[in-house]
Amino acid sequence: MILISVNTGNREDIKLLLKEQMATLEKKEESNGIEADEGGWKNQGRALIIDGRSLVFAMEEGMRSSFLHIAIACRAVICCRVSPLQKAEIVEAVKRMVRSVTLAVGDGANDVGMIQAAHVGVGISGNEGLQAVNSSDYAIAQFSHLQKLILVHGAWSYTRVAKCILYCFYKNIVLYIIETSSKEKLLQFPALYKRSQNGEDFNSKIFWLHCLNGLFHSIVLFWAPLKAIDHDVAFLSGKTHDYLFLGNIVYTVRHPASLFSFAFIFSSNIENWFCVTFLKYVQTRRFSSCGIKAIVSINIALTPC
Phi, psi (5° rounding) for residue 3? Predict the structure, then answer.
C-alpha cells in the first residue's frame, strides 16, 4: 500500500504536498478516464495519514477542497491526535462534499461532536463512560458488533421503515378516495351536514362495532395460527417451528384481513356516494329546492346509526 503521510505542521509544506498529490491524482484520472472515487488511487491501495496539527492547515479555506478530494480518492484515511472539534469538522466536510450517508463510531466524550455530526451515530459502551452512547442513535457493546448492526439490523430496519412509509401513503390514499363528500358537494347540499350533527360516523354502536372488528382480526391473525401450531411439528430438517415461523403465518394472513377491513369501510360509504350522485341527478332534472331538501332529509333519516 502506498502511504501518503502529512505531519509537517507547516502551512507552506502542506500546501506544496497537497498540490503535488493533486497533480498526480489528476494525471491518473486523465490516463484512466475515470473518477478517483471509482478507481484510480483506490485500486493502487493508497492511504492518507495526517495528524491534528497538520489537519488545522489542511482544512483551511484554500486547501480544504484539495485535501478532501485526495482523502476521498484514497482507500483509507487516518487522522491521529485530532481534537473533538476537528472530528466533527471532518464529518461535516465529507457530508457536504460527498453527499452520501455518513456513520461515526465513538466510545468516549471526545467523540460526541463527531457522532452528532454524522447522519448515523453509533456509541460503544465501555470504560470511557456513557457520553457517546447517550448522544448516539445506536449503542453497541463491542466494536465487533458493528458488522451485524449494519448488515443485518440495518437491512431489517430499512425494510420495515420502507414498508411503514408505503403503508402510510397507501392508507391515506385509500381514505382520501372513500371520503364521504367533496368540498363542493358539502357546500352545494348543506343538508349533508346533518350526518355530523346526528353523530352517524362516531357513536356507541360504531365504536363497539370497530372494537369487535379488531377483536375478530386479532383472533384471525394471531390466536388461530397459534392454536393451529399448538403441538410441535417437525420439519424435514428435524427442527420445530419458532416465533419466526408464527410471525410469517401472521404476516401472510394479514393481507386478507386488510382486504376485509377495506371492504367494511368501503361498504359503509356506498350509501353516501349514492346519495350525492342521486342528488346531482335530481338537480340536473331541475327539481325544486324543496324537493331536494325533502329527499336529503328522508335519506339521512333512513341512514342507520
Answer: -105, 130
A 10 A CB-CB count for 152 gives 10
**And the C-alpha cell for 88?**
466533527
Kindly report, residue by residue over 165-184, the tens digit of the pLDDT: 998 888 787 777 666 556 67
Amino acid identity of 290? C
- Is 120 within 8 Å of 137 (Cβ atoms)? yes
d(CA 95, CA 99) in angstroms, rounded, equals 5
Three-state SS for 305? coil
How confident is the model over 73-106, as pLDDT tens digits?
A: 888 899 988 999 999 999 998 888 887 889 999 9
Dihedral angle computed from the Cα positions of residues 209, 214, 220 and 223, in that order, rounded to the nearest 10 degrees: -120
Instruction: Calculate the alpha carbon distances from 104 to 49, 146, 233, 270, 291 in Å.
Output: 18, 11, 46, 54, 71
User: For 178-242, where are the alpha helices, taking DSSP H only?
Assistant: 183-188, 194-197, 204-218, 224-228
